[in-house]
Protein 1
Amino acid sequence: MTSEELLQIAESVNAEHEKFDYEVNVCMGTGCMSQHSAKLREALTKEAAASGKRCHVRQTGCMGLCAAGPLVLVEPTETLYGSVHESDAPELILSLGEPPVERLRAHLEDYFHGQQHIVLENSGHIDPEKIDEYIGRDGYAALVKALTEMTPQAVIEQISKSGLRGRGGGGYPTGLKWGTVAKAFGAQKYVICNGDEGDPGAFMDRSVLESDPQRVIEGMAIAAYAVGASKGYVYVRAEYPLAVNRLTVSLREARRRGMLGNNICGTQFAFDIEIRLGAGAFVCGEETALIASIEGLRGQPRPRPPYPAVSGLWGAPTLINNVETFANIAPILRKGAEWYAGIGTEKSKGTKVFALTGKITNTGLVEIPMGMTLREMIFGIGGGVPDGRKFKAVQTGGPSGGCIPEEHLDLAVSYEALISVGSMMGSGGMIVMDDTSCMVNVARFFMEFCMTESCGKCIPCRVGTAQMFDLLTKICDGKASYADLDLLIDLCDVVKNTSLCGLGMTAPNPVLSTLRYFKHEYIEHIENKRCPAGVCACGSGVATEVEVTA
Amino acid sequence: MPAYPMPALPSDDKRWKIVNGTMRRHGYTRSALIETLHTVQSSFGFLDDDAIRFVSKSLHVPLSQAYGVVTFYNHFSLKPAGKHTCTICTGTACYIKGADKLLATATKMLKIKSGETTPDGNISLMTARCVGACGRAPVILEDGELVGLVETATMVDQLERWALHD
């Protein structure tokens, strides 16, 4: 494959599209599929054929706003319809070339305003199972460019210059990691894509893999070229069957087009990718545990160093990056490091995909440039808290992160800023809570998660999380004393500082951050044995009477 | 083929051939353990003693290690599931939207805990860590089919329908 051949494919795909006056894109992401978008697509295809109009019905990946699914996007008019039922198909097809069907239109100007799509640029526009459609939108141009015009060092230099940092949560500079693996000594090297999105409340990686899998494959191939690897693995959760299917199809397609295999683009470069299924263990998101799992072992982490960059899969130098990190690679090489570095804040470059969920009007996937404030995200794009409720906190970083209260909403999103308020970027889950959530209960929820997901290898995490969970339960039940709270705080310190891996080290974060901003709720549970939000077992009723009499 | 003697297939059930196929594709390497267990789980629905012994012998993995892997990962189950499965997602978004109430209702109604099957083998109640459909929270899986924005009443209806048509 040369860049000329690539252009030819792109041209023939685009010529194919020009045969149609209209393109009707139906979202076939997990969210919309659960609302029968497959049936809707069938109905639309049938209607389109019967109508005699020159229109093409296409399955696409996630369009973002899962709350208003199933979504249908009509091009070239860019009309977006929401909550479309299969019975609406005739009306929708009939309206092509006429004014749009007003009653079905989704008015989401606020939602899309302020978003900047780099990772999601193809999501909702291409059929994820067709490689040619990806090529039609500049796909694989970056890989061909890297292989034919750039040295591996030049690729790494570009990535370093772009300022891209790991999107899995840690925020380690990607270029630096690639450089370490490239310099590491070893005949065999591996590239691993971490798609073990165990963070409850986060689904960015799932969406990217479902909507634009070729982008991840291209990113991995470029990485393999840069570090000198010949074999790659994508580790995906078994809970994401659709993502696994699309990825399997896409790998086959990529091999067919010669983007994977031997002599890629007529060069000496050889690279292929295999899928490895996760089996339901949160700790496998930790890189050394993930490697153990690919090796067929229990997913237990090991102490670092040596880092996987030096000694990873089967002892070979291994590059591990998150799905979203790989998804950023191709655009950086295509449009240049300077372009990418121009987006975002001083230390956090580019965009970040977030999964906005919880008590928020527009739940779904958003991609924003770094540096946007939380307020803009939640009240602008997200449309605020529904049902007239009051915003209480936003949780980022999953079980390793923290809850951010209203006073910090004007914080500009970046790796450093989120850490400074006691949370972290994490993989991008953003869960909004209103005044019906009890923050002690939230802390208990995350602690239960960490307790059950602890792999059991190191004692601070295995025993500490269980002890902290018991203490939090005691507080929630209204049976705790101040001594228990002190013990809890002590334990947080011990577990944080003595655990083996990230899971244990960050397990106390939800407790620490809620203690920092919502200590009065803990005190209310201990002092008055009541739960202000009325969630916990101790209830809110009895104490309210006390308040009245007092 | 590996140098050590291969165990005989546990029975003439054709599904063992599929399991064997997975191991062959991976060259009977030990690292194929999890992939093979996935195949057993998806073809048989659970992993029994025979299956774990067969896989561990075929791949030359100590039985203790194979058993350790099976019990480490949530995805693998040692018991067969019921005819119907109701999986309640307990991810953060679902929790905020009241998944705990769904779970409490289902537990009370079916008189079983999560991870168990009703005595008549009809309905299994499961919890999932997060199925990644947080935009539709709270979410449950009815026989693997994803249902979003679940209300207690609709879930109860479904469970009753299953209970009646066994």
Protein 2
Amino acid sequence: MANMAVSRIKREFKEVMRSEEIVQCSIKIELVNDSWTELRGEIAGPPDTPYEGGKFVLEIKVPETYPFNPPKVRFITRIWHPNISSVTGAICLDILKDNWAAAMTLRTVLLSLQALLAAAEPDDPQDAVVASQFKDKYDLFLLTAKHWTNAYAGGPHTFPDCDSKIQRLRDMGIDEHEARAVLSKENWNLGKATDGLFS
Amino acid sequence: MEEPKIATTAELPSTSTGASSSSSTLSNNVSYDKIAWTRDITEPLAEESSTSQLRPLGTSIPTDSASSELNTSNTSYSFTGDYLSGGNKADLKGGYPSGGTDTDTKANEKDKEKEHNADDSLYECNICLDTAKDAVVSMCGHLFCWPCLHQWLLTRPNRKLCPVCKAAVDKDKVIPLYGRNSTHQQDPRNKVPPRPAGHRTEPDPVPGFPGFGFGDGFHMSFGIGAFPFGFITSTFNFGEPRPPVAVRGTRQYQYEQALSKLFLYLALVCIMWLFYA
């Protein structure tokens, strides 16, 4: 069966390379090792979302039992999204779990993830903090997501206010990523963030 | 062979005028040529395969001269190319000093290759993405290799869904596809159970009165009751289709035989009772 997984991945690789999306630079895929079991995907942030302009890198691990079981996909690029863990990059998407179907391909998975970025499901969250911010303070969520896209995925929107707050925490000896995570979690309230960090 | 025929019939007015104009100046051969053409005009559909050739029937012209006439007549026509498919066009154009034929044929070959690939991908298994082996098709119309689909059904024993459209699929509800050369079955993998058999149902029996023939078993019915009702009861039996006769030697056959004997005795008893009463 492992043989089948490899031969299918090879075909899918070709399919992605021939697809229209690669011409539009909206999805990309590349090999990590020679055994075809680990791949690196990349999706562009969909337009009219806070992720627009960003490039998000994904880790794709192909199990021995592929395509009967889904590939294991996780975001390597940090992202602020209700259905993606802001810490580990783990994804909550039904087709990567119970709703996987053997006819799905790497291309459809990448496109589904792109669709997930455009349509979050805060009621079925992977990251509860992000989901509650999405529901209660949507403006702050948009700001945070754009800021993360800028910081990690090369997005165009810069927020000097956020940067200065992060710099304040860094001056206190806090790591940049941790400072950004804590501030995002505390809705960019510097006082609460410092309390959380130093209590 | 058909396409040149279409072309010649379409171009006939010009050919006949050309032949008649030349017949005044040239030798007899040309007039025979004209005769042959008129034959083709009068019976163009009678012999489809031979109409494209000139047949100077009843004349003593040797065949090589006839073929040369064909060539000359060919050159006098203007084949527009709309009538001809790629291969024939290339053949006919071979004699002309034209530069475009090679590129044309190459383009045609490329097109054919593309079509071939498209044809292949039509018959790809939706799971392994290879051309389907031991092909089965689901009720929702999706094609799979049987080993692939079987493996998929084993992976999710409690949620048997079509991998493509998520309709319900079941081992008993897929249809195997038998191509013409599928009698040479390549070794079905050891662990995989044999492909499910096709469901073959007999066509419905022809409706209507089955007739009094004894060919398919004796058919008798009794209505018990007052006269008109009994009449109706027995009349209403006519339209019902009868189940096929059981195969001789099976248990059902014995059972049916026993039943028919029982009813025969019952009928005899009733008749006897009528006589005595």
